[in-house]
Write a structure and sequence with these properties.
The structure holds two protein chains of two kinds. Chain A is α/β, with parallel strands linked by helices. Chain A contains six helices and 28 strands. Chain B has three domains: 209 residues, FAD/NAD(P)-binding domain; 152 residues, D-Amino Acid Oxidase, subunit A, domain 2 (D-Amino Acid Oxidase, Chain A, domain 2, 2-Layer Sandwich), CATH 3.30.9.10; 84 residues, Arc Repressor Mutant, subunit A. In chain B, strands 1, 2, 9, 10, 11, 12, 19 and 20 form an eight-stranded mixed β-sheet that branches. In chain B, strands 13, 15, 16, 17 and 18 form a five-stranded antiparallel β-sheet that branches. The chains are: A alpha/beta, B alpha+beta. Chains A and B meet through α3, β11 and β15 of A and β18, α9, α12 and β23 of B. The complex binds flavin-adenine dinucleotide (2 copies).
């Protein structure tokens, strides 16, 4: 049997993609490795989800359940405990408890999420002892398994998961000594700094990092140091005693399943896509954290909907192969998604992140002749916060440029 | 019971000896301080079975290395451990150095050596910088998983009657009427002969035996491990020219498809931490030799500590007590030499080297080697082989359970990692750690907080203040 759309990954993005696709075509299947749908949200028992899509504040688990109940009303086949191991030519290889199968697909949407950067990934020096974990792993440890990583914690990296976990650990009775950030500014959302650190008097040490981890069997402490702009250690090192260390030092899209078949962006590490979230292989689409890291689950879902609708249309031969042009960015912008657009009438939302903080600045999008085709004023733009700007494509062609107006 | 032999130390040397003696119909017990075999030097090295051209003429190192290299082929087949003869090159800017190594190799009895120049080198090592005009190619250098090899040696011995005791902290050894009484806190082991190959701990045991102790020197070697997606960086082990301090910082594939950069060589106190200085040294050495180094593919760093005692290995009977064999200073190429050291121990004790018919061990390392058809058959009989737990390395629950119930009955997270590669991949157990810990706890009837990472008291999680009292 040939499916119209095969969605890999049952997180907020993949579920939304499957729901939307099923509104446009018959045969949709959703493949999820875990025993339940929801992805990362299953371990997010804090609130702050759904403001955009449901217009109310939900916990991650509630948010996932809402989407899942929508999904159940649609005609979508769901394969749980099923691991998509390979993408082959119009086929997905899936490992299940009923055997290894190949599922035929007119189109494929990959929404497999991301992994956390590890101690090895940042070449953390010192002992490789028990008690050093990525923040998301500790989130699972506490919220899912009811265990704690230690009684005195230090957090390296001010990513959102680290901030959320600073609060979570504190509520669980674990003393949080502080959050260290190598950059000059915090990389998490402003609301998380207020709600997770400030409200609990947890210190945030900017321009600081860990020199080495010490301990015999479990971690016993770390030596920390201040760093200069080039991240070289400066000043005296200081010992901080702790029995667990959480790392919140970045998220990386898990694109290995593409096996270098689709073009990847060296910045986002996800696929290069057009506004339909179509990759360089036209029948393969991608959305959610595997495409680029989203701060909000709502955005991952919205992106899933775009991919779902586009894939279904492609399966129905209603998404032609358009001419494509590049969306280029100035040095003040770290990346944008999509990176390309199709030359055809319509509009789309362009997502991007600023490289550094900008206050009271205008973002402009120009066409090849230098005329402004879209602009938006921002009170404050932080690298940690994804921004969006709408682009009207009517009569547009040629490469376009995104920049911060001087 | 009184064993014929008690072996101290479950590194590759101890396990090779355990295995060989068992094959030679001896009753043997292995006493290991840690909770698994291969937790010392034998887990943290380059994973290379060296060809043998580097060791000094007429040294024990050269003799054991060349002989060991030959023995590896048959042994790995019998033990069902993967071995890949992928070859090695030493690259150099001058001809004299490689020529000298070539001559030394010939003298040591190494086969398959060849001098290469110009393009022949760059065909083998495309990313090498172009000023390396000369190279020595050694066909017989091989890749092996040092810990799986060690584990397999011990497992085969155990299913053929040998005994392995973990968590064995020796506090006293007495000899009465030709029998050694070995005490720890709760038991006494008796044996007629003792082999002391406790690596960094060799002097602790020698002291208890009142025999020779050694002047040991510790030299740390640090490494970077790269993701499998970087595996095309080098397909052969590449050495710079060797120096007084060993073989130099190399780039090599591993048997599992990762890439290693390292090791440096720094005098240290015993301890397996990595350091900024050490890692930087490795980085600079690699950048000096190669273009296009995929540093963004680094997934881990680690270090191993070489235990040296002068320039050569020490493998001898004690001059104080002829019932004791002493093995010290087994640094590189100790992994490569281990089967030959075991053979030599048999000679030292005049043991008949005729081997008994051995029961074969089961290869439970990875079902990825099987065809889809074979895997499906396995899944049909046991669905847990179709449930992926570690996705980076594609390891199923069935494989983890098989490892937990394997002959040495491993109980720690790292011992499962060494057996089936859970957590060895790019997410470093971020996704699967708690699942593996849960399986370990469940199989042993323990709680999650009872599971150790590697050594005793390396608990992975603690009890929650509120919920578990
Ligand atoms: C600690 C934390 C706090 C957060 N806080 C907030 C918040 O307050 N508000 C908010 O709006 N957002 C928040 N987010 C962000 C939001 O959760 C993510 O952006 C969103 O979950 C990403 O969705 P996704 O579907 O792309 O990925 P995921 O949720 O990661 O889902 C991917 C799914 O794909 C499955 N999968 C992957 N590969 C395969 C394969 N090969 N075969 C089968 N299945 C596969 C995985 O098992 C997983 O279920 C938070 C995230 C974290 C981690
Ligand atoms: C950085 C590095 C790279 C290397 N690369 C290579 C290579 O590529 N090829 C190669 O051939 N060789 C290599 N070597 C050398 C090789 O790893 C060693 O020679 C070999 O592992 C030594 O094995 P072992 O059994 O002597 O020691 P270990 O593996 O250290 O075993 C000693 C064991 O004794 C135990 N022990 C200690 N004290 C006691 C006690 N009191 N009672 C009971 N048990 C005790 C320890 O727990 C340990 O398990 C390398 C070494 C290093 C450090």
């Amino acid at each position: 049997m040939m499916y119209d759309v095969v969605v890999i990954g049952g997180g907020p993005s993949g579920m939304a993609a499957a729901i939307r696709a099923s509104e446009f075509c018959q045969k949709v299947v959703l493949i999820e490795r875990e025993p339940r749908l929801g992805g990362i949200l299953n371990q997010c028992i804090h609130n702050g989800f759904g403001l955009k899509i449901f217009k109310e504040e939900l916990t991650g688990v509630e948010y996932a359940q809402r989407i899942e109940s929508r999904l159940k009303q649609q005609n979508i086949e769901v394969l749980l405990n099923s691991y998509a191991s390979k993408i082959l030519d119009h086929k997905v290889e899936v490992i299940t408890q009923h055997g290894i199968k190949q599922i035929k697909a007119k189109t494929i949407i990959f929404a497999g999420g991301c992994r956390e950067r590890t101690a090895g990934g940042i070449s953390l020096a010192g002992k490789r002892v028990a008690g050093v974990y990525t923040a998301g792993l500790v989130q699972k440890m506490i919220n899912y398994y009811g265990k704690i990583p230690g009684k005195k914690a230090l957090i390296l990296g001010s990513g959102d998961i680290g901030l959320i976990m600073a609060r979570r650990l504190t509520l669980q009775g674990v003393k949080v000594e502080g959050v260290l950030e190598i950059q000059k500014s915090c990389s998490g959302l402003r609301r998380n700094i207020t709600q997770c650190l400030d409200d609990f008097n947890i210190p945030l040490l900017l321009s600081h990092t860990i020199k080495r981890v010490v301990g015999k069997d479990r971690i016993e402490g770390v030596f920390i140091s201040k760093v200069d702009e080039n991240f070289n250690f400066v000043g005296e090192e200081k010992f901080v005693e702790c029995d667990c260390l959480l790392l919140s030092v970045g998220l990386i899209p898990e694109t290995e399943i593409f096996n270098n078949q689709v073009e990847l962006s060296s910045i986002t590490k996800g696929a290069v896509v057009n506004e339909f979230r179509q990759t360089s292989i036209p029948y393969i689409f991608s959305s959610g954290n595997v495409l680029h890291i989203h701060d909000l689950a709502d955005n991952a879902s919205i992106e899933g909907e775009i991919a779902g609708e586009s894939a279904a249309k492609y399966a129905n031969s209603k998404l032609p192969n358009f001419e494509m042009c590049n969306i280029e960015i100035s040095k003040d912008i770290s990346y944008c998604v999509p990176q390309r657009y199709c030359v055809c009438d319509g509009e789309f939302m362009l997502y991007f992140r600023a490289k550094k903080r900008f206050d009271k600045k205008k973002i402009v999008v120009k066409n090849e002749s230098g005329n402004v085709i879209s602009s938006k004023f921002y009170l404050a733009m932080l690298p940690g916060e994804m921004q969006e700007i709408k682009i009207n494509k009517n009569n547009l062609s040629g490469n376009i440029y995104l920049e911060v107006e001087e | 019971m009184v064993y014929d032999f008690a072996v101290f130390g479950g590194g590759v040397v101890g396990c090779a000896i355990l295995n060989k003696l068992t094959r030679c119909k001896q009753t043997v017990v292995l006493l290991e301080k840690s909770l698994d075999v291969a937790t010392g030097q034998s887990k943290a090295n380059s994973g290379l079975v060296h060809a043998g051209f580097d060791a000094k003429e007429n040294s024990l190192k050269s003799k054991f290395n060349v002989r060991g290299n030959k023995l590896f082929n048959k042994l790995c087949k019998e033990l069902k451990v993967d071995l890949k003869e992928s070859g090695a090159v030493v690259v150099s800017e001058d001809f004299e150095t490689v020529k000298r190594l070539y001559e030394r190799g010939k003298y040591n009895g190494v086969n398959g050596l060849k001098l290469l120049t110009g393009n022949e080198i760059f065909e083998k090592v495309p990313n090498l910088k172009k000023h390396f005009h000369y190279a020595l190619y050694a066909k017989t250098a091989k890749l092996v998983s040092p810990y799986l090899f060690t584990i397999a040696l011990a497992e085969e011995a155990v299913i053929n009657g040998a005994k392995v005791i973990f968590d064995f902290e020796t506090i006293k050894i007495e000899k009465r009427n030709g029998v050694f009484y070995i005490y720890n806190f709760n038991q006494i082991i008796m044996a007629k002969k003792i082999i002391n190959c406790a690596g960094y701990g060799v002097n602790e045991i020698s002291k208890l035996l009142h025999v020779e102790q050694f002047n040991l020197e510790f030299r740390r070697g640090e490494y970077f491990v790269l993701d499998k997606t970087a595996s095309d960086f080098v397909s052969i082990s590449v050495f710079p020219t060797p120096s007084k301090f060993g073989k130099g910082i190399l780039a090599t594939p591993t048997i599992d498809g990762n890439i290693l950069f390292g090791p440096n060589n720094e005098l240290c106190e015993y301890g397996t931490q990595t350091t900024h200085l050490g890692l930087n040294e490795v980085k600079q050495a690699i950048n000096k030799m190669y273009d296009n180094v995929p540093w963004n593919k680094v997934i881990r760093n680690y270090s191993g500590v070489r235990v040296s005692c002068g320039d050569d290995f020490v493998v001898k009977l004690s001059e104080v007590d002829n019932d004791v064999a002493l093995i010290a200073g087994i640094n590189s190429p100790g992994l490569s030499s281990s089967p030959a050291i075991a053979e030599f121990i048999c000679q030292l004790f005049n043991i008949d080297i005729e081997e008994k018919q051995m029961k074969k061990r089961e290869d439970y390392s990875s079902i990825k080697k099987l065809t889809i058809k074979e895997r499906n058959k396995l899944i049909e009989t046991n669905p847990s082989f179709g449930k992926i737990v570690c996705k980076c390395e594609e390891v199923s629950e069935g494989e983890i359970l098989r490892a937990i119930n394997s002959p040495l009955k491993p109980i720690t997270f790292d011992s499962i990692k060494r057996r089936v590669r859970t957590g060895m991949g790019r997410c470093q157990a971020g996704f699967c750690m708690m699942k593996v810990v849960s399986l370990l706890a469940k199989e042993q009837g323990l709680k999650l907080e009872d599971i150790f990472k590697e050594e005793k008291n390396s608990n992975i999680v603690l009890k929650d203040f509120e919920y578990d009292v």
